[in-house]
Design goal:
The protein is an alpha+beta fold. The chain has 2 domains: 186 residues, Up-down Bundle (Multidrug efflux transporter AcrB transmembrane fold), CATH 1.20.1640.10; 116 residues, ACT domain (Alpha-Beta Plaits, 2-Layer Sandwich). Helix content is 69%, strand content 7%. The chain has 11 helices and 5 strands, in the order ααβαβββαβααααααα. Strands 1, 2, 3, 4 and 5 form a 5-stranded antiparallel sheet that branches. Strand 3 and strand 4 form a beta hairpin. Helix 8 runs antiparallel to helix 9 and helix 9 packs parallel to helix 11. The protein is elongated, with a radius of gyration of 28 Å.
């Protein structure tokens, strides 16, 4: 196996680069969206009842636009004008009551929301706040449970990249254990590829990044970096062998079985979520299992290939350096 990996190392590295570029491009087109009601099965009683009420009323959720003082002149007319303009926004099913004013000069407009995902609603709430400012309220805020869910879901999903980066950076202290920055970087590069596969695959499949799938990257990376550390530590321990190929062969023989067993246990464990009824639970299990298997492939095939290619490049550079020094003499 080590001999085959050594021969294919340049092509493996090139394939990994093409893979990362393609799925990275797809990742850049990934949309962020969460449908809280969509996590329930289509025949769930609560979902059926909510859909029936929504079909009759146009929606089941509301949001409020809080308008802080000072208010513009002709406040009541401005409130009615603002309500009329809000009705023209996509995602608004209708008014949820008459505009209300408080003694301190603040006002509140309640609107009924049409069913939609969190990304569309984030844009809707931002547009509502802009309309209020255009009509003279300098301090306008969309409030309510629907607003909080939409904005928190979007922030969580978009901040997921920082969570994955933090998980990858857990490999950095291994530079002390492995006594090699080079080996640590190899582990980082190989374990980043499953992230590209996960997010690029979601985009290519037309699936949005939801709150559930946003947690997979950092959670799974935190699990699979163990295999990278395990393999690289074994490689470091075998580094006294006569050749890089022999070092890789001994490391694979010593570590591959344990890595395969842990991968099977983790992947099958997450697949048990298929027995659940919630769509997000099933989706999380499938994506997590796929990411774990992809990380196993990266740690057992890409890491050795990168190590062999790096050794070949260093040997080639040393040979060229000796030739140049001899020619100069």
């Amino acid at each position: 196996m080590a001999r085959a990996l050594a021969r294919a190392a340049p092509w493996t590295a090139l394939g990994a680069l093409v893979f990362a570029l393609f799925f990275g491009w797809a990742w850049s087109r990934l949309e962020v969206d969460t449908d809280p009601l969509g996590i329930l099965p289509s025949k769930h009683p609560f979902r059926l009842a909510t859909d029936e009420i929504g079909a009759r009323l146009g929606g089941t959720e509301t949001f409020e636009l809080l308008l802080e003082p000072p208010a513009p002149p002709l406040t009541q007319l401005r409130l009615l004008e603002l309500q009329a303009k809000l009705l023209g926004l996509a995602g608004i099913a209708g008014p949820a009551g008459v505009p209300r004013r408080a003694e301190d000069g603040s006002a509140l407009i309640s609107m009924l929301l049409a069913p939609s995902g969190t990304t569309a609603r984030e844009g809707l709430f931002a547009s509502a706040e802009v309309l209020a400012r255009e009509l003279g309220w300098s301090d306008a805020h969309a409030t309510g449970l629907a607003v909080r869910i939409a904005r928190d879901s979007g922030a969580l999903a978009r901040g997921e990249a920082w969570g994955m980066l933090a998980s990858l950076l857990t490999l950095l202290p291994c530079a002390v254990i492995l006594r090699s920055v080079r080996l640590t970087l190899v582990g980082l590069l190989a374990n980043a590829l499953p992230c590209f596969l996960l997010h690029g695959g979601l985009a290519l499949a037309g699936r949005p990044l939801s709150v559930a799938s946003a947690m997979i990257g950092s959670v799974i990376l935190g699990l699979v970096v163990d295999d990278a550390i395990f393999f690289l530590h074994g490689y470091r321990a075998q580094n006294g062998a006569r050749s890089a190929r022999l070092t890789v062969a001994r490391t694979i023989g010593d570590r591959a079985q344990a890595m395969t067993v842990t991968t099977l246990v983790l992947a099958l464990g997450f697949l048990t979520s298929l027995a659940g009824k919630l769509a997000t639970t099933r989706e999380f299990g499938v994506l997590a299992s796929g990411s774990i298997v992809a990380a196993w492939v990266a740690n057992l095939f890409l890491v050795p290939s990168f190590l062999l290619l790096g050794r070949r490049m260093r040997v080639g550079a040393a040979v060229r350096g000796r030739r140049v020094s001899r020619a100069s003499v």
